Amino acid sequence: MRILVSGLYGHMGREVAALLQKGVEGGELTAGVSLDHDGSFAVPCAERFADACTDVDCIVDFSHHSCTKDLLDFAVAHQLPLVLATTGQTEEEMQMIQDASRKIPLFFTANYSLGVALLIDLAKKAAAVMSGAEIEIIERHHNRKLDAPSGTALAIAHGIQEVRPESKIITGRNGYGKREPNDIGIHAVRMGNIVGIHEVVIGTDNQSITLRHEAYSRALFAEGALKAAAFLIGQPAGLYDMTSLLSD
């Protein structure tokens, strides 16, 4: 499969490029788009989507959410499958993603780790079984991460809301006031070079369960994105996620 990497010269773009140069998932780095064009890779690279190569099978995006509109417009115009691996989208950008998925196959998830997908599934099961338990989510990332809480922490919370529709997501706490029974608290830690740690604590007055996933290398997410690309090629228009991949 021939891949166009959006955000080619960012940290994750480089991880994807390195895997493609090894032929992971049978992929080939064909082209790239980046605002930081430094010529590090021997592939055609454009600074604007309008100038990007279209002779590819799929786009893998690890850029910035501010590129969402241009990226989607390009993918739809050229009918290219898109693996969107950037988080932090605004409500307006999320609507753009929904609209584009009616025209092209689009894979979008907050985290491209199979382990995180399992963590969300386990958290949902525990929240359903321990129906009266309180739930808190703690996420830790490196000091360069821009969005807080992380997209993965929100994905965990939204998954729990599927089995607890009455619950309310609370991002951080300050001021004066007690915890409400239906709160799902999310707490963000930013320090050092932490790749990504997510913990879900589900507890009652008498017992608690802690579910934890830790990423050791950012290559983990690049691998998942390429698996998603291999899955997406040939699919009809629609919005796909890790559940789609795991059930394939």
Task: Write the H/E string, N to C.
Answer: EHEEEHEHEHEHEEEEHEH
Strand order of the largest sheet: 3-2-1-4-5-6-12
Large-scale geometry: elongated
Radius of gyration: 19 Å
Helix content: 25-40%
What percent strand? Answer: 25-35%
Report the sheet with the most strands, covering strand number, pairing sense and barrel closure.
Answer: 7 strands, parallel
Unreliable stretches:
none
Gap between N and C termini, in Å? 19 Å
Annotation, overall tally of beta strands: 12
**Helix count, DSSP H or I runs of 4 or more residues:** 7
In terms of structural class, how would the helical and strand content be classed?
alpha/beta
pLDDT averaged over residues: 92
Descriptive report:
This protein has helices at 11-21, 68-77, 91-100, 114-129, 151-163, 219-232, 242-246, and strands at 2-6, 28-33, 45-46, 58-61, 82-84, 105-108, 134-141, 168-171, 183-190, 196-203, 208-215, 238-240. The protein is α/β, with parallel strands linked by helices. The strands form two sheets. The chain has a seven-stranded parallel sheet, with helices on both faces. α4 runs parallel beside α5. The longest helix has 16 residues, at 114-129. The chain is elongated and about 60 Å long. It starts with a strand and ends with a helix. The mean pLDDT is 92.
